[in-house]
Amino acid sequence: MKNNLKCLCTFIVVFFLSIEMTYSQIPRAGKMSVSVSMPDTIVNSHDTIEVPLFASSLSGLNIFSYETNIRFDTTVLHFVTLVKAGTLSNDASIISNRKADTVLIAASATSALSGRGELIRIRFAIDTNVVSGGYSPLEFTRFQFNEGSPPAFLTNGKVTFAQRITIQTQIHNGWNLLSLPLTVDDGKVSTLFGEGLNAFVYTPAGYVPTDSIRNGEGFWIKLSADSGITYKGITGTVRVADTIAVNEGWNLVGSISDGVERDSIKQLPDSILASDFFGFDVSYYQTNFIVPMRGYWLKANANGRLKLSSNQNAMRRQQVFSPNHSLNDTTR
């Protein structure tokens, strides 16, 4: 009986020691591990971009080398080269190679790497055929320091192409029903339309003045315009989709950067739209098509959300987009 009990105790000790050893080999954020990450980056032009690999402190860890494989979407990005100047790898020897959708990187140094910050930078070119909203994940498929110690805690990144354009719409002297179809640096009414102006949004409690415009909202604004054709433009980053909250009853909603047909709008919950859209251009008009920079009345039969997304065919019919900030006529 004593021998059996002794064997059982020995088994339990060995079992828990094996669990502890296995757990200790799992790379995780902790005192002895190094965090290595790539950021989520937004680019606005078909040019080159340098994506940094950030590392937490390497000091005192006796790191002399590292190897990594990073996978990306070759329809969005093209690997160009590595940039080590000014990084933690400045004095290391670096080699790289691209195989299909993966770039392979190996670095070695004669003295231990130290400090924290950019471990290395990867230069990519943006494919000229990428449209706004296109993106490439940046995924670590392999990473190790030295021969595997210290362990690395990895965070993947992403590169998104978001084109900057100017959208213009015809305005009239007096009240105009508009919206904000782009992501802008400053949504203040004074920045977008000039000093001394107020915009009005609609809530279940009635009209409310506002000094800042938000995406997804329709708003009234009183503008001065010549007797001829006058255009007002807004410059920002393309929004190919948006989710707009609506209340039961009448709502003033906005637009995205592309034309959107009523039937393409996803309704949450289903069938909450109780009317067509009503725009304003000197007088009210009924429509089932939303164009950028215009605002619209609609009626909902319940509280919910509307998901607007790009309709490429409609976009081509209604407007011409240009990366050079040229005119984008969104009149109906």
Number of helices: 3
Kindly report the average pLDDT value.
84
The gross shape turns out to be elongated
| Share of residues in helices | 10-25%
As a whole number of angstroms, the C-alpha radius of gyration is: 28 Å
Summing up helix and strand content along with how strands pair, one would put the structural category as: mainly beta
Q: What share of the residues does DSSP label as strand, in percent? A: over 45%
pLDDT < 50 runs, ≥5 residues: 8-30, 312-332
Number of strands: 27
Question: Looking across the biggest beta sheet, what order are the strands in?
Answer: 2-11-9-4-7-6
Summarize the main sheet.
Answer: 6 strands, mixed
Q: Helix and strand succession? A: HEEEEEEEEEEEEEEHEEEEEEEEEEEEEH
Please, could you describe this protein's structure?
- The protein has 332 residues and is mainly β.
- It is built from three helices and 27 strands.
- The protein has helices at 2-24, 189-193, 312-318, and strands at residues 34-37, 40-43, 48-55, 65-71, 77-83, 93-99, 102-108, 117-126, 135-145, 152-155, 157-161, 164-171, 174-179, 182-183, 199-203, 206-210, 218-223, 230-238, 241-246, 249-253, 260-261, 266-268, 277-281, 283-287, 289-290, 296-300, 304-309.
- A six-stranded mixed beta sheet has the order 2-11-9-4-7-6, with no helix packed on it. Strands 5-8-3-1-10 form a five-stranded mixed beta sheet, with no helix packed on it. A four-stranded antiparallel beta sheet has the order 13-17-15-16, with no helix packed on it.
- The N and C termini lie far apart (92 Å).
- The model is unreliable at 8-30 and 312-332 (pLDDT under 50).
